[in-house]
Protein backbone atom coordinates (compact mmCIF):
# COMPACT_ATOMS: atom_id res chain seq x y z
CA UNK A 1 0.00 0.00 0.00
CA UNK A 2 1.03 3.57 -0.61
CA UNK A 3 2.18 5.92 2.12
CA UNK A 4 -0.98 7.98 1.68
CA UNK A 5 -3.25 4.98 2.25
CA UNK A 6 -1.19 3.94 5.29
CA UNK A 7 -1.55 7.41 6.78
CA UNK A 8 -5.29 7.39 6.07
CA UNK A 9 -5.65 4.03 7.81
CA UNK A 10 -3.64 5.31 10.78
CA UNK A 11 -5.86 8.40 11.06
CA UNK A 12 -9.04 6.27 10.90
CA UNK A 13 -7.65 3.96 13.58
CA UNK A 14 -7.10 7.01 15.80
CA UNK A 15 -10.72 8.10 15.34
CA UNK A 16 -10.28 10.85 12.78
CA UNK A 17 -12.52 11.19 9.75
CA UNK A 18 -11.48 12.64 6.39
CA UNK A 19 -11.81 16.41 6.32
CA UNK A 20 -13.36 18.63 3.69
CA UNK A 21 -10.14 18.98 1.70
CA UNK A 22 -9.59 15.22 1.68
CA UNK A 23 -13.11 14.65 0.40
CA UNK A 24 -12.67 17.36 -2.24
CA UNK A 25 -9.40 15.79 -3.35
CA UNK A 26 -10.91 12.32 -3.67
CA UNK A 27 -14.06 13.45 -5.47
CA UNK A 28 -12.74 16.23 -7.71
CA UNK A 29 -9.01 15.82 -8.19
CA UNK A 30 -8.51 12.09 -7.67
CA UNK A 31 -11.27 11.10 -10.07
CA UNK A 32 -10.30 13.69 -12.69
CA UNK A 33 -13.68 15.43 -12.66
CA UNK A 34 -12.44 18.92 -11.68
CA UNK A 35 -10.56 19.70 -14.94
CA UNK A 36 -13.54 18.55 -16.98
CA UNK A 37 -15.94 20.75 -15.01
CA UNK A 38 -13.57 23.70 -15.45
CA UNK A 39 -13.41 23.11 -19.21
CA UNK A 40 -17.21 22.90 -19.41
CA UNK A 41 -17.48 26.15 -17.44
CA UNK A 42 -15.09 27.95 -19.76
CA UNK A 43 -16.98 26.57 -22.75
CA UNK A 44 -20.29 27.75 -21.30
CA UNK A 45 -18.86 31.27 -20.94
CA UNK A 46 -17.82 31.39 -24.59
CA UNK A 47 -19.45 34.25 -26.45
CA UNK A 48 -20.33 33.27 -30.02
CA UNK A 49 -21.62 36.75 -30.91
CA UNK A 50 -18.44 37.85 -32.74
CA UNK A 51 -18.35 34.55 -34.64
CA UNK A 52 -21.95 34.98 -35.78
CA UNK A 53 -21.29 38.61 -36.73
CA UNK A 54 -18.15 37.73 -38.72
CA UNK A 55 -18.18 34.09 -39.89
CA UNK A 56 -14.72 34.44 -41.43
CA UNK A 57 -13.27 34.13 -37.93
CA UNK A 58 -14.20 30.45 -38.11
CA UNK A 59 -10.96 30.06 -40.06
CA UNK A 60 -9.04 30.78 -36.82
CA UNK A 61 -10.62 27.69 -35.26
CA UNK A 62 -9.80 25.67 -38.35
CA UNK A 63 -6.19 26.85 -38.13
CA UNK A 64 -6.00 25.55 -34.55
CA UNK A 65 -7.25 22.14 -35.67
CA UNK A 66 -4.70 22.13 -38.50
CA UNK A 67 -2.03 22.98 -35.92
CA UNK A 68 -2.90 19.87 -33.93
CA UNK A 69 -2.53 17.53 -36.90
CA UNK A 70 0.61 19.26 -38.17
CA UNK A 71 2.27 18.96 -34.76
CA UNK A 72 1.36 15.26 -34.40
CA UNK A 73 2.67 14.53 -37.87
CA UNK A 74 5.82 16.54 -37.12
CA UNK A 75 6.51 14.52 -33.96
CA UNK A 76 5.92 11.25 -35.81
CA UNK A 77 8.21 12.43 -38.63
CA UNK A 78 10.99 13.05 -36.11
CA UNK A 79 10.45 9.48 -34.90
CA UNK A 80 10.48 8.13 -38.47
CA UNK A 81 13.84 9.73 -39.25
CA UNK A 82 15.28 8.59 -35.94
CA UNK A 83 15.99 12.08 -34.65
CA UNK A 84 13.80 11.89 -31.54
CA UNK A 85 11.85 8.82 -30.47
CA UNK A 86 8.14 9.51 -29.80
CA UNK A 87 5.34 7.00 -29.39
CA UNK A 88 1.89 7.76 -30.81
CA UNK A 89 0.43 8.80 -27.41
CA UNK A 90 3.44 11.06 -26.84
CA UNK A 91 3.00 12.59 -30.30
CA UNK A 92 -0.70 13.16 -29.57
CA UNK A 93 0.14 14.83 -26.25
CA UNK A 94 2.62 17.10 -28.03
CA UNK A 95 0.16 17.72 -30.84
CA UNK A 96 -2.56 19.08 -28.60
CA UNK A 97 -0.27 22.06 -27.93
CA UNK A 98 -0.89 23.00 -31.57
CA UNK A 99 -4.55 23.59 -30.70
CA UNK A 100 -3.55 26.69 -28.70
CA UNK A 101 -5.38 25.57 -25.55
CA UNK A 102 -3.13 25.26 -22.50
CA UNK A 103 -5.43 23.56 -19.96
CA UNK A 104 -6.52 20.94 -22.47
CA UNK A 105 -2.90 20.27 -23.42
CA UNK A 106 -1.96 19.76 -19.78
CA UNK A 107 -4.95 17.52 -19.04
CA UNK A 108 -4.41 15.29 -22.08
CA UNK A 109 -0.66 15.07 -21.58
CA UNK A 110 -1.32 13.90 -18.02
CA UNK A 111 -3.47 11.10 -19.43
CA UNK A 112 -1.52 10.20 -22.59
CA UNK A 113 2.12 10.89 -21.72
CA UNK A 114 2.70 11.79 -18.06
CA UNK A 115 6.47 11.71 -18.61
CA UNK A 116 6.12 14.76 -20.88
CA UNK A 117 3.75 16.69 -18.60
CA UNK A 118 6.38 19.12 -17.30
CA UNK A 119 7.69 20.11 -20.71
CA UNK A 120 4.20 20.40 -22.18
CA UNK A 121 2.99 22.52 -19.25
CA UNK A 122 5.91 24.92 -19.67
CA UNK A 123 5.31 25.15 -23.43
CA UNK A 124 1.56 25.62 -23.04
CA UNK A 125 1.78 28.36 -20.45
CA UNK A 126 4.68 30.05 -22.23
CA UNK A 127 2.65 30.73 -25.34
CA UNK A 128 -0.42 31.58 -23.25
CA UNK A 129 1.66 34.26 -21.51
CA UNK A 130 2.74 35.68 -24.87
CA UNK A 131 -0.83 36.21 -26.09
CA UNK A 132 -2.17 39.64 -25.04
From TrEMBL:
Q: Membrane spanning segments where?
A: 20-45, 57-76
| Gene Ontology cellular component terms for the protein in this record | plasma membrane
What membrane topology is given?
A: Multi-pass membrane protein
According to its UniProt entry, one GO biological process term is: sodium ion transport
Renumbered to this chain, the signal peptide range is: none
Q: Which reaction equation describes what this protein catalyses? A: oxaloacetate + 2 Na(+)(in) + H(+) = pyruvate + 2 Na(+)(out) + CO2
Q: Which UniProt keywords apply?
A: Cell membrane, Membrane, Translocase, Transmembrane, Transmembrane helix
The cofactor(s) it depends on are:
Na(+)
Enzyme nomenclature, EC number: 7.2.4.2
Subunit structure, briefly? Heterotrimer of an alpha, a beta and a gamma subunit.
For this chain, the family text in UniProt reads:
Belongs to the GcdB/MmdB/OadB family.
**Name of the protein:** oxaloacetate decarboxylase (Na(+) extruding)
